[in-house]
Design a protein that fits this description.
377 residues; mainly beta; 4 helices; 32% strand
């Protein structure tokens, strides 16, 4: 009662999807384009119109046609694993201008207003390939074991503050001219892609980039479970803002009772945080840094460490579904991808039996400890 799903007005929604490398409003697509995205050529034009209204939130089976909020079906998809991310754009301490970003398995990345008098969306983004799930949700015909998943992954942000050129979340409490808000979202079981949106202007978001697993520079990328960790590194003698993410999850793990090598997910990637260009990656073979022990998928996020407080990452850690923990040391004097980092397995905490088949689905916690007798560690 009183939550977002109960109060939003379908007529006020701005639903956008990606098309040809940019964003377009769903309602601006032609009927034939919508039919193509819904993935069912047997849909009539009337079915497409009805389904689109349902996607916008109308109760199309009890619809009087006046487009008012009373026609709302008052329902959104489940945010099963996606955690809400709050970004403050300005305002005051007592009345902040903030937005809430979260994903649902219906396929949307929602950007909500926090005005209690008008708790509507700035926008809702749905990747075009997830539009094919909408008829399944509307028809409610999918069995529980074949539930369609959507934007169920973790969300992160890069809020750039020009005053100190660092990675901060609203150091001065507002987003000013020349600053930006970039949102990064994965899909978890919804797919093998990452999406980066420029949400600086919440009325007109833009697509920064899309990363697709299984092809191109990301052949080892499985289901995108990990958060994109935004960081600042030394790269070829200069400071660079990057995003780290792991290779994700290999669905074969669902059925493995003992530790079994994976085909995908056994990788870690570093890309340019603005463009998505792959700068560096590590895996067991064919990568910039090859580590033979990287045999299993890595669904959890990395843990990045700036040990000397200079706003540049020095180390990062990761753990895989084979019970291994890895450490990577960044060479601050690197001159290309092959010299960027060294690393390897520092622990193996699983065995070869079903009872010892320990897997890690959460990132390592890292503590910096000072030993008075042995110096700093």
């Amino acid at each position: 009662m009183g939550g977002f799903a109960n109060r939003f007005d379908p007529a006020e929604r701005k639903i956008i999807t990606n098309r040809s490398g940019s964003l377009v409003q769903l309602q601006d697509l032609t009927t034939s384009q919508q039919k193509s995205y819904y993935g069912d050529s047997s849909l009539s034009n009337g079915d497409v119109e009805k389904l689109t209204k349902w996607v916008y939130g109308y109760d199309v089976d009890d619809y009087d046609g006046d487009g008012s909020s009373t026609d709302s079906r008052k329902s959104i998809g489940d945010p099963l694993h996606s955690e809400p991310l709050i970004i403050t754009y300005g305002g005051t301490d007592s009345a902040p201008d903030a937005s809430i970003f979260f994903g649902t398995n219906e396929g949307f990345l929602h950007a909500l207003k926090t005005d209690t008098d008008n708790p509507t969306e700035h926008f809702a983004f749905i990747p075009n390939q997830l539009l094919a799930n909408q008829d399944d949700y509307y028809s409610n015909r999918a069995a529980a074991v074949s539930k369609p998943y959507g934007m169920d992954g973790l969300i992160s942000a890069w809020v750039y503050d020009k005053n100190d050129d660092s990675l901060v979340l609203n150091a001065n409490g507002s987003v000013q001219t020349g600053e930006h808000v970039y949102i990064y979202a994965g899909m978890r079981r919804g797919g093998d892609r990452y999406y980066a949106l420029d949400a600086t202007n919440r009325s007109n978001p833009e697509l920064l980039f899309e990363i697709e697993g299984g092809s191109g520079d990301f052949t080892k990328l499985g289901q995108t479970w990990s958060k994109m960790t935004i960081a600042k590194v030394k790269w070829n003698g200069e400071s660079r803002f990057v995003a780290f993410f792991t290779g994700g999850y290999d669905q074969d793990q669902d059925n493995n009772s003992v530790r079994t090598d994976d085909d995908i997910g056994n990788a870690i990637y570093m890309v340019d945080a603005r463009t998505g260009e792959r700068l560096w990656w590590t895996s067991n073979t064919g990568a910039d840094l090859n580590i033979t022990d990287m045999k299993n998928s890595i669904p959890a996020s990395i843990s990045a460490i700036d040990i000397n407080g200079d706003n540049h990452i020095d180390y990062f850690f990761a753990a895989d579904t084979g019970g291994r923990v890895f450490r990577f040391d960044i060479d601050q004097d690197n001159f290309n991808a092959s010299s960027f980092a060294t690393g390897g397995m520092i622990a193996l905490l699983a065995g070869t039996t079903a009872d010892s088949n320990r897997r890690f689905y959460n990132k390592p916690d890292v503590s910096i400890i000072k030993d008075k007798d042995a110096g700093d560690h």
